[in-house]
Amino acid sequence: MSAPKRKRRETFGSLRKLPSGRYQATYVGPDGVRHNAPSTFTTMTDARAFLRSVQDRIALSTWQSPADETAARQRDGLTFAAYAETWLGTRFNSKGEPLRATTMQEYRRLLAAPLAPFAQRPLSAVTRAEVEAWRASLLATGRRTQTASAYGLLKSIYASALENELITATPCTIKGGATTVTGRKVAPPTDDELDVIVASITPRFRALVLVAAWGGLRYGEATELRRKDVHVKRRAGEVVSIALSVERAVVHITGQGFKVGPPKSDSGVRVVELPSFVFADVLAHLEEHTGRFGESLLFPGADGASHLMQSSFTRYWYPARKAAGREDMPFHALRHFAGTRYAATGATLRDTMARLGHSSTGAAMRYQHETGRSSELVAKMVRRVAD
């Protein structure tokens, strides 16, 4: 075997003939590092052509190191779906904890449905025009809330990709694209409508409606309450107070079942005192529908031991709200009722936030509605001026 020939000096770079008869080209790049051509060449002419192309790229400031070129090819081959999966695995809340199961479920739902058109697209290939057209098509379906949620997730994923230098610019530039105004407002029941609902619903769920309406508990908070969370105080044999310790909430995740965790926010951990006029119903419920152990669920499912599926509860909720003439009303409207009635007693905004477990004043304000007491309140203002 003959020895390799000496390197041949060129005006740029150098060449040498290998024992195999092929030619190897090398050069020193703008980074000061000597680089080899990615492959060898059959002829010296081909090797020199490669060196000329490198020299031209350097002159045009378009040269990239081989490592950067490899990274660019990897980025170009990275699909939106692949990066989104990586992104999900690195998400944590403000306390450094993994995302809640419900949040993760919602993100995966959005990725699988409204964001599906981007799934197999290269992450770096999606354009602003493409995003704008996609959003317009979703809005045309009338699903404005879902569109805003999906766009918000898309924007967050691309913001991370930009921060990690996987793309040079984000295609998500629609101002206000992640917010929406549906025009639909949750109207709480009137006192009379609530009375009809309480009278119409099966006795097993009467206390659940009252706890939601007068205590302001979320469905998941109420259905995770246990006997140990109900604190009854008596004086001389008479019940003087009933308070509920809200420390947990339950959600149902498709394919995973019920998951118990903390309430929606840190502010959700609270003690809620109930008004005296619901004492009798709550005590009757404890006696007739709740197990005797501290861990017994206050509002269990039909078997008396498992959590109450919301779909099971709605079989009784729908007829009751229909009897009240409020077929439009979700169960969550009872929480709006609680916020409005508590504020009407003179409670401050901070008081209402503490009772309902809100972490922001904006959220608390959404749960306060006009009560129809304008004349009464104006009359009070007049009396105060007269005094």
From TrEMBL:
It comes from Microbacterium sufflavum. The keyword ATP-binding does not apply. Keywords: DNA recombination, DNA-binding. The keyword DNA-binding applies. Residues 78-162 form the Core-binding (CB) domain. Residues 184-383 form the Tyr recombinase domain. This is Tyrosine-type recombinase/integrase. It comes from the Bacteria.
